[in-house]
Fold this protein.
Amino acid sequence: MKDRIKIEYKNNKIILSKEFFEREPVLLTASKFTDKYYINIQPVGKNEFEINIQQKFETLAEVDILKNFCNELIDNQVRHDLQGEFGKLQEMIVEPAFYPLEAK
């Protein structure tokens, strides 16, 4: 089985399989970390993304940034998948709640 996520702690690098992670969740995750980190996303061949994460400020002491990034990414990918699979059902359930009330 192909690795879905490879973490290289020494290089602050994450390599993701495009088979399991889509562009939109990757970008959404990256945007949540740009306040404290420089995020660089590059394609690697046809099948992978490479994400490099560097601290903006030397004073930060976050040692688990790569793990946190991966957890956030998995969360965003699952939400993306569920929205694609059940989004129409969600709309059908929520839509009646916003129907205007009719006077009798």
User: Anything to note?
Assistant: The first helix runs from residue 23 to 33.
